[in-house]
Amino acid sequence: MKILILLAHPEPESFNAAMFHTAVETLESAGHQVKTTNLYQMDFNPVYGRSNFTSVKDPDYFKIQIEEIHASQVNGFTNEINIEQEKVEWCDLMIWQFPLWRFAPPAILKGWTDRVFASGRFFKNGGYYKNGTMNGKKALLSVTTGSPEEEYTKDGFHGDIHSILRPVNRGILECVGFSVLAPEINYSVAHLSEGERHSILEKWRNRLDNIFREKEIVVGKY
């Protein structure tokens, strides 16, 4: 199978990086084809603008959707963006590895989705959700938090973690057609012992060995 793994963390020695490298090694060892996107290593620019395009539909007024549809028709995305779009279109499974910052992914990852998931290419003919262009593909969020697990329950200090992740799972991934797998969530990682980190990485390897047997979850509407 073909797998795209994204990493959005600025520290190469972070636990997120360890999760990322573990996923790459495990899946490649199992015979899968793996491509990666390491956003901070790439110094990816998350800011949307005309720099997304080599084409111009309307030079006088910048309307993103119109320019995206035009670029999709004339191959008018920059090489940087086209490469990332082709990776997403290529994969059977996409995994995002990131820390939860202020109840959301890092801005560099959100900016990647803004620039890559373009109308005319990822949104065609009004196709959304089960009619989206990524229908038949799966996606998985692998997330770390700063706070402990009990704070991410319905009655906890931060609230239900699945509700926090719903804007990504529903509004970004399912919206373009991906089937969403249960998130891999590891809590309070900065406070884990070396043994606990080793156990988590081993659990992650074991899950990835069986990842294509997993069924999608029901994310639910807002």
CATH level-4 homologous superfamily:
Flavodoxin domain
Helix content: 25-40%
Give the integer mean of the pLDDT values. 94
* Contiguous runs where pLDDT drops below 50 for at least 5 residues: none
Structural class: alpha/beta
User: Count of helical segments?
Assistant: 7
Protein name: Flavodoxin family protein
Keywords: Oxidoreductase
GO molecular function, one term: NAD(P)H dehydrogenase (quinone) activity
Domain Flavodoxin-like fold: 1-207
Describe this structure in words.
Residues 1-207 form the Flavodoxin-like fold domain. Keywords: Oxidoreductase. Belongs to the NAD(P)H dehydrogenase (quinone) family. One of its GO terms (cellular component) is cytosol. This is Flavodoxin family protein. It is a single chain. The two termini are 32 Å apart. The chain has helices at residues 15-29, 39-42, 64-74, 79-90, 107-116, 161-173, 194-209; strands at residues 2-7, 33-38, 93-99, 138-144, 179-180, 184-186. The protein has seven helices and six strands, in the order βαβαααβαβαββα. It is globular, with a radius of gyration of 18 Å. The chain is of the alpha/beta class. The model has no long low-confidence stretch (mean pLDDT 94). Strands 1, 2, 3, 4, 5 and 6 form a six-stranded parallel sheet that branches. The protein has a single domain (2-213), classed as Flavodoxin domain (Rossmann fold, 3-Layer(aba) Sandwich), CATH 3.40.50.
